[in-house]
Amino acid sequence: MNNDWSQQLAAARDAASAAAGVILGHYRANVAVTVKADRTPVTVADVEAEQAIKNVLLAAFPDYGFYGEETGTHGADRDAVWLVDPIDGTRSFVREYPFFSTQIALRYRGELVVGVSSAPAFGEVAWASVGDGAFLDGQRLAVSDIADWSDAALSTGNLGSMPASPARWAALGDLIATVARNRGYGDFYHYHLRASGKIDAVVESDLNILDIAALTVIVREAGGNITDIDGRPIDLDTSSVVAANAELHEDLLRRLAR
Question: How far lies 252's CA from each of 152, 164, 167, 192, 211, in Å?
């Protein structure tokens, strides 16, 4: 595998910046909302931001594939494929609060190698590439080393399908009763906090790879562990996440095991 992803990372950061300009131009502008077949909302900002991202990335790397939330997939069988969600958190965008982000990742021969997570209305950008560490607004990130749940902060995100497994739901409840603090920061934000060492664990049961691909690179490069809820590596079919430091991750998986 290529050990230098600096050019790809630079292109992804440029693409995120281009998207931010589009998104902020539409933010709080009462844009029209369309509901897709999967009942998720989409706006002109989503489509225009993804096109701006695609223009930057494919100009820099025309032979790479592209998998976008809004404009679809081409070249998915190529060694290198960009994974893009132009506005992860469209509902937040529509409701005019700042918990939405642009997610751009590069997958190379099955491995996630570059990630950029840009939250333009929130005012922060995180990025990482394999072997080069993770950064938030230029500051290097490192996860916490807290090893006891009684000292730990846990954040949960989307949990809609979790109650379908009563034992797992009960285990999460038991954990919430144990930790020092529980919150539901959600979306990009609790992964930024996780990678920064400001919280210690994240659990989500309902998401897709475009939501989490870039954040996976960032969390790993900050020294954290991240898998799905069954302990499997993050991949194209991922629909859940457990992220924690090494001291807590295995115990968290054990607690949530079916």
Answer: 12, 19, 14, 19, 21
Structure-token pair, residue 235: 């991949």
Q: Convert the pLDDT of each residue in 140-193 to its tens digit.
A: 999 999 999 999 999 999 999 999 999 999 999 999 999 999 999 989 999 999
Using CA atoms, how far apart are residues 195 and 218, in angstroms rounded to an integer? 7
Would residue 109 be called left, alpha or beta, if left means φ above 0 and alpha means ψ between -120 and 50 degrees?
A: left
Helix axes of 6-26 and 44-60: crossing angle, nearest 10 degrees = 160
Q: In the predicted model, what is the mean pLDDT of residues 112-123?
A: 96
Residue 131, SS3 per DSSP: coil
Q: Is the pTM of this model over 0.90?
A: yes
The DSSP bridge partners found for residue 124 are: 119
- Between the alpha carbon of residue 194 and those of residues 10, 127, 147, 210, the distances in Å are 23, 14, 14, 18
Contact 155, 80 (CB under 8 A): no
d(CA 119, CA 38): 24
Q: How far apart are CA 75 and CA 64, in angstroms?
A: 7
For residue 38, the model assigns a pLDDT of 67
Cβ(30)–Cβ(45) below 8 Å: no
Residue 240 is given by DSSP the state -
Q: Are 33 and 42 in contact (CB under 8 A)?
A: yes
Buried/exposed 150-172: b ≥16 CB within 10 Å, e otherwise? eebbbbbbbbeebeeeeebbebb
Q: Which residues contact 130 (CB under 8 A, 6 or more apart)?
A: 1, 5, 111, 112, 113, 114, 217, 221
Contact 228, 138 (CB under 8 A): no
What is the rounded CA–CA span in Å between residue 33 and residue 116? 26
